[in-house]
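User: structure tokens for this one?
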Amino acid sequence: MTRILSAAIMGLDAQIIEVEVDLTPGLHIFNIVGLADKSIEEAKERVSAAIKNSGAEPPRKKNQRLIINLAPADIKKEGPAYDLPIALGYLLASKQINFDPVNKLFVGELALDGKVRSVSGILSIALLARREKIKTLFVPKNNAQEAALVEGIEIIPVESLSQIIAHLEGRISIEPQLPTNIEEITEKSVSWRIDMAYIKGQENAKRAIEIAASGAHNLLMSGPPGSGKSLLAKAIPSILPKMTRAEILEVTKIHSVAGRLSPKTPIISQRPFGAPHHTASEISLIGGGTFSKPGEISLTHRGVLFLDEFPEFHHDLLESLRQPLEDGIVTVSRAKGSFIYPARFMLVAAMNPCPCGYAGHPLKPCVCSSNQISKYQRRISGPLLDRIDLHVEVPQLKYDKLASEKVAEDSASIRQRVEIAREIQRKRFASTDSGQINSEMNIPQIKKYCKIDSAGENLLRNAVDKMNLSARGYHRILKLARTIADLANEENIKRDNIAEALQYRQKEEEY
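Assistant:
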């Protein structure tokens, strides 16, 4: 019997899987056991064809019993990543090749001609290999750059089964993959489709967006159709600060497990921006499925989740956002297991004031009844609205603004201020184990870092009573005011910072 190491993806992490191969005389059989799914069962045909087309003898002898066990047997396995270790295990057991499999880990899908195809979750597997002190990781060539993000292990890029056999037997030597240069890839791939300079007017909304980006606060824009809500939201990535190396690895790991990485770009170097349609299912947004995968809220971790036509999303789906917005994680519990995915995203939502879109419009009459408007706005619950820090109106622009040749402030200038505010926050929270952004502050941190002058305290006291703020609303006002003070480079929160934060809170008569 031979034993080859491979790996399984469990949530966002990987776990060692031992591919045990037992070859004995007897009535011909070729079975794969160990809670394997359909794609692994089909590996028998892929492996047999790949071995034959690589010039070796496939497992077809009439007097040969071949049993493949994927251990531990109580973990459900899926995907074609076990093709390569199964093929090598059989060739080793049948004495067609000879090599030492100790301290080596293999993953890869086999094509019928023996070529090795890329698989998902390589970054998680590389992190596992380093954690388990495995010396060498053999991966498909298209996954090699991604695996080389992890330092401290040897990454061998494999193109075909015949090539890896020749390498393992010492007939050729495959050059290890060089470490991936994150900074070089980041510089080449940074680009934005929309710049703030080309969005006419909407200075109030732009100010709210700048504050939201500086502290990763949630934002809701309301206005008539065509006022520029969607355009403003799509321009937000252009003012967000660059991701740190830790954030890049964190986000890339999520996209790798979800199979969303481009073969040409092995890392996610820009903050993700997701804009699911309002007909999206709960699983696609939150995560889960037969084999649990991260949803859109995890794929936009450290980035922006844009929900256009906010009230049109299903009520249950919107309510499922409440826990991730508060905790920054989502727990997906299914019969086959429970998985925790990170979900520290910045929610940006857009909506019309009524079904026809023209309630409160100075020129176009609204055709909706008061009952229709009330029903439409009540689709978004109070607890969900309470988790949104900035509520801003985006009015219809007049002709003079639309026709103006004046170019507004560009994204680079705004991004510079945002990055300065984020740097202040990074230094502030450098000695803590929790997040490094104002929106992630816990109550002890709010008490420590949100010092208010006496005038600001009086204003906030009156606002809590008159606006009927909840405890959550009160703390969110302080977090928002802290971000506004950071943009102004103020050490403590002043009355003007509190006043600006209060103006972004939802008004009772609005909803």
